[in-house]
Amino acid sequence: MSIVALIDYGSGNLRSAEKALTRAADEHSTGHSIVVTADPAIAAKAERIVLPGVGAFADCMAGLRRLPGMVEALSEAVIGRGIPFLGICVGMQLLAEVGREFGDHPGLGWVKGEVVRMTLADPALKIPHMGWNELAFPRPHPLFAGLEPGAHVYFVHSYVIRPADSGEVLATTDYGGPFAAAVGRGNIVGTQFHPEKSQAAGLAILGNFLRWTP
Question: pTM for the whole thing?
């Protein structure tokens, strides 16, 4: 059975992510086993990797680095061998070169760009951005196969990723102005929203990720 490693580094909504991935694997008959793990050896052997994340950028990055060998195992699997990777919320933001939350903090650097605080054109809107918003797709990507523009997904965040290459923006959302709701390149994808909390649309996205062959 193919393993999806759901990385436990103390900063993720693991229970709901595990349940949603398991349901997506069942509904789409992908044959995957979802394994919550803090063991880099398991991550290194996984067929796919999911990195969740809740909290501040620096805290999440520090939590990941506190697991001996985990960053190296992820880099070897994802960058070295091209294993399909999904980052969720702060797990996606960690893909950037730098996060600018409470100072400047280095990220994984797998996506060139930065993570910055949201700026809203409408002063009536509040930060954090919390709730359901529509997705728009600049171009087709297998992660969003079968979803119509305007599909609703669930967000909870105050910071957004700004990729240096606009071609790496896979989906956008408008909340006081447009921002990247999903980014990716090659075998790497990340969502600012929480697919595990996004009901039917989220399960479809997770199913697409489990069937995706970059």
Answer: 0.97
